[in-house]
Amino acid sequence: xxxxxxxxxxxxxxxxxxxxxxxxxxxxxxxxxxxxxxxxxxxxxxxxxxxxxxxxxxxxxxxxxxxxxxxxxxxxxxx
Length: 79
What we know:
This protein is mainly β. It has strands spanning 2-10, 22-29, 32-38, 40-42, 47-52, 55-61, 70-72. It has one domain (2-72). 0% of the residues lie in helices and 54% in strands.
C-alpha cells in the first residue's frame, strides 16, 4: 500500500465533527489504484486509517501539518 497523491486535505478549525485532518487520497495496492477518503482514527492503535477493499490500512504523517507526507505501515520512509 502506498499513497500516490493527496487529492484534498482539510485541517479542522474548531473540531466539532473532526479533530484531525481529513480529505481524500489516491492510493495504490497490488496494482490497483483507488481514491479513498481518510480521517478515521483508531484510538487503540493511535493511528489514522483508510479502508481499501474492506481492509484497514494504518498510516502516519511523517511531514508537517501544512505539508503532509503519508507513510503506510511497512513502507519505506526514506526518499
